[in-house]
Amino acid sequence: MLAASLIGCRRAGSSDAASAPAAPAAPVAPTKAVGLVVPLRAPNDSEIPSGALGTSVRRGRALLAATRDSLPAFAPGKLRCVSCHLDEGRRANASPFVGVYARYPNYNARSGHPYTIQDRINDCFRRSLNGRALPADGSDMRDMVVYFAWLSHGVPVGAAVEGQGLPKLTPLAGDTASGRALFGEQCARCHGADGAGTAVAPPLWGRASFNIGAGMSRLRTAAAFIRYNMPFDRPGSLTDQQAFDVAAFVTSRPRPDFAGKENDWPNGDAPPDVAYRTRAAPRKSAGSQ
Ligand code: HEC
Ligand code: HEC
User: Fold this and answer.
1) For the whole model, what pTM was predicted?
2) Whose CA is closest to atom 15 on ligand 2?
């Protein structure tokens, strides 16, 4: 398949292609490079290097697991990084960190500019943890990046890892009434009837939860996370429709605001499930009047 399209490209670029301009259209169609996808393989602790580098790997991992206790000024709520990036960032379909170091820098549509891995980490501090950006040149940030790099060993730069990010579900409309009932049956025992969290699970809404600017505040993102990862002790037991219903209920609940959210997606390409208006979206349609 790949070989055939390469031949097609070469033929399209050759000098005699000019004499038959209509013919190459089909063979040259796959102009986008086929990305390399590698299996998700998290290294074992026995592979942690000795010395200062290994200390940094372990410290970075500890910060992800005890974020609010270690960095209260930056993560004042009740979430920690691994509340969503499960198994210390090793679990497929829960936005794993395996390979994440090989994906940055990249283009970030929400901000409209290229992102370093530090920029991306800080988006989760400011939005998912409803906190503050960590200094990019400090030792806490350095240790987190070192842990991500260790988890990503062997993943080629630019490659995708199986199970990276969250799976894409076919979008469905969520029914908040049915979601409320499902929440009571399936979620409240751990997350609390008021969604504020318990000793065993973090809050889903309210003051100590993620803010409106977080990815988890989007219906599709929340539905995908819940469909594959919740209930925590029975992941995969909900149908897609149930995941959308309970996600619609959870994302409809009050949570902290995010200052400046209207500046997100400055090129007008906000996904349809973003829960707030962005400035660029109306401007874009105004431009075509
Ligand atoms: C409320 C849930 C939540 C919490 C808490 C959270 N994140 Fe995230 N994070 C997400 C979501 C959702 C994404 C985007 C996943 C996707 O669709 O690819 C993401 C993406 C990321 C990415 C980019 C991953 C990639 O594949 O490019 C990094 C890095 C990251 N988070 C780091 C952190 C760190 C560090 C913390 C703690 C300071 C944290 N996150 C806390 C939900 C969360
Ligand atoms: C058996 C207990 C349990 C049940 C039941 C459960 N969860 Fe969770 N949930 C957890 C735990 C524990 C975490 C965080 C994992 C960690 O910190 O290691 C979590 C994390 C989450 C998160 C991301 C972090 C946050 O607080 O926003 C969401 C969203 C979520 N659960 C939604 C749900 C929904 C919706 C249901 C019901 C369909 C549900 N959970 C049922 C235990 C549970």
Assistant:
1) 0.90
2) 83
